[in-house]
Specification:
The complex is a heterodimer of chains A (200) and B (237). Chain A is α/β, with parallel strands linked by helices. Chain A has helices spanning 30-38, 46-52, 101-107, 130-137, 159-170, 175-185, and strands spanning 2-5, 9-13, 16-20, 25-27, 42-43, 56-61, 74-77, 86-90, 113-116, 152-156, 190-193. Chain A starts with a strand and ends in a 7-residue tail after the last strand. In chain B, the strands form two sheets. A seven-stranded mixed beta sheet of chain B has the order 3-2-1-4-7-6-8, with helices on both faces. Classes of the chains: A alpha/beta (200), B alpha/beta (237). The A-B interface holds A 35, 38-39, 100, 103, 110-111, 117, 120-121, 123, 141-142, 144-146, 184-185, 187-194, 196-197 and B 93-95, 97-98, 101-104, 109, 111, 113-114, 131, 134, 136-140, 182, 185-195, 198-200.
């Protein structure tokens, strides 16, 4: 895959380390391309973007399209919905590091859902109103668990994914606690991402 | 489903810590069975497993290999693993409930992220891990000192990969844990900080002295079984 460098990078060619400068085009493997893009070190052209993120799209929650997301198709919905084989669900005011978008989709090859943690300290026992807490205590054995930033969620289209999204949407109240209740009763292969993915 | 707690304690320092951890556990859970993997019987436990196969003779191997074989060695379908230097302060049965709900593993994310990400492992392993799965911005570090697992095919596959990944560098196990999770994903439920280093389970990090570095170069490429049968001294062949 060809990428254009935004930062100086060294690549090994036939065992020889070779330095490439900003603006250079370099052919590298897909995994390295994803890492470099996430690092802000490289960009790809539109055709390569499509190759990096086949069958991917964005489900934006709300009435307005917040911004373009690397040329991906965007569908506006009122609730989280799986709109593509691989969907990034984006709810305002979720912050998005555009470079991380391809990497999130990449992980859906092995995980059902990828979502950042809210932070490393806040636990489910510390958020929500009294009725949210009561509903969650009835499901989770212990509320001293980290919470997820559900404004930014990558999910793949599968039976498990659709069942999960449907169940989450049916849960009332604070969305992050609703997510945890749904998650607990619908075990998935979930990749918890560092809080930085959500801009925190 | 039968639940129990497993420890790994080789060497007198680890065994001493393990005894104290068991006392703290039994004060709250007098009927919860306890199994210890050690080089000789530990009377405080209900059972001690001493015949772990293929344990590397060097110090890191003594501590790590049996732990990474717990999916096979634990006598319990639902297992809580505790580092020997932990102290149980509250009821831990809630840690088993995610397993009964269908999760394969319950574990605590580390507070060491960003600049402290994998600070305690070798530089070469940290760099390799970052290149393979992403660095601190992209991969969440998990703590390996307290976890709950449910016996099954998914856990068996995961542990097999974890062991294989650990053998690449043979030091600490968190880097291998993170790489294994990417290779063989499982259903992993996250617990909060109180469960490892907090109100539920205290952790006396660093209470058990370790050997510096990892494996001596001379032993790195020798098959483990050969090391055992040849009676090779730790750190040499």
């Amino acid at each position: 895959m060809w990428v254009q460098l935004l930062k100086v990078r060294q690549v090994e060619r036939n065992g020889v380390p070779t330095m490439y400068q900003i603006g250079d085009w370099v052919e590298i493997g897909k995994h390295d391309a994803l890492m470099w893009i996430a690092d802000g070190a490289a960009v790809v052209g539109p055709r390569a973007q499509h190759a990096l993120m086949p069958n991917c799209g964005v489900c934006a929650i709300g009435n307005e399209i917040p911004y373009q997301v690397m040329g991906l198709p965007i569908t506006c919905k009122s609730i989280p919905t799986i709109t593509h084989p691989k969907t990034l669900v984006l709810a305002p005011p979720g912050k998005l590091k555009l470079g991380f978008v391809p990497l999130g989709f990449y992980h859906l090859a092995k995980f059902d859902v990828c979502v950042p943690l809210w932070d490393l300290r806040t636990m489910a026992s510390e958020i929500g109103m009294a009725d949210d807490q009561a509903r969650t205590k009835a499901v989770l054995p212990d509320l001293r668990v980290p919470i997820y930033d559900t404004r930014l969620l990558w999910i793949r289209d599968s039976v498990e994914g659709r069942t999960f999204i449907s169940a989450w949407n049916a849960e009332p109240g604070e969305r992050r606690l609703a997510f945890l209740r749904t998650l607990f009763t619908h075990p998935l292969k979930i990749l918890a991402l560092p809080p930085m993915w959500g801009g925190r | 489903m039968l639940k129990g707690v497993c420890y790994v304690a080789y060497g007198e320092a680890a065994r001493s810590e393990c005894r104290l951890s068991i006392l703290s556990l039994q004060a709250l859970h007098p009927n919860l069975p306890i199994c210890v993997l050690s080089d000789r019987p530990l009377p405080e436990a209900d059972r001690t497993i001493t015949d772990v196969q293929n344990v590397p003779p060097y110090t890191w191997g003594l501590a790590r290999w049996p732990k990474l074989c717990l999916n096979n060695l634990s006598p319990f379908p639902l297992t809580c693993y505790l580092d020997a230097d932990t102290r149980v302060r509250e009821n831990i049965m809630a840690g088993f409930e995610p397993l009964e709900a269908g999760w394969d593993m319950a574990i605590v994310p580390s507070e060491n992220q960003d600049k402290e990400w994998l600070w305690h492992i070798s530089e070469v392993e940290r760099d390799t891990t970052a290149s393979e799965i992403g660095g601190p911005e992209w991969a969440l570090q998990l703590q390996g000192g307290v976890w709950f697992i449910r016996r099954g095919a998914a856990i068996d596959k995961f542990f097999s990969v974890w062991r294989r990944e650990w053998q690449r560098f043979e030091g600490q196990d968190q880097g291998a844990l993170m790489r294994a999770l990417r290779i063989a994903p499982i259903r992993m439920w996250l617990l909060g900080r109180p469960w490892n280093g907090g109100a539920v389970i205290q952790h006396r990090f660093g209470a058990i002295p370790r050997s510096p570095g990892g494996v001596a170069a001379a032993t790195r490429n020798v098959p483990i079984a050969a090391q055992i049968t040849s009676g090779a001294a730790p750190g040499g062949v």
